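Methods — Computational structure assignment.
A single polypeptide chain was analysed. Its primary sequence is given first, followed by the predicted tertiary structure written as structure tokens.
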Amino acid sequence: MRTRIVLTWFLGMAAGHAAFAQEGPLQAGGFNLHRAYFSQLPEEHIDTASGNVLLTFTDLELPGDAGSVLRLQRTYNSNRAEWRFGPEGFADVAFFGTEPQGFPDGPWVRTVDGAIHSARWRSPACPSAAADPCGFYLTKEFWLVDIAARRVFYPDGAVDQFVQAGGGTAVDCCARRTPN
């Protein structure tokens, strides 16, 4: 009898948590620091598993405070077939709602290299990504996404603040605060 109760409790706990698949290696859109790339030139990165080609050109590099550097880059991503321009390491667009087909469900952040970093809710108490009051969402890079305040917190202490762009739920990055 006791074994049956423990087994029922264990199965109930295991079935109560949703599982999410990671982005497949052939779908990865941007530069991943934890992957090996083939490159014969410093500005090219070729993913031999997926065939994705990233070309990154630094157009301007300015020294900053405390050893930080501001780099303006042009990036071509063959997986997304587009050129992007902007500061290195900054998120240029974030989406805090539901995106049309082909994009992750729930909040996501796109960086200049074309990578889309989807976020998942941190608490099982939040039933879905569409429920805005649930608070913070987390990406696999440990970026914290605050839906209500439209901010992205990075592990190094930097914070991106986003503003509404047009009538949708897509927003553009307007300011970054660093921990200096």
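Note: The radius of gyration is 19 Å.
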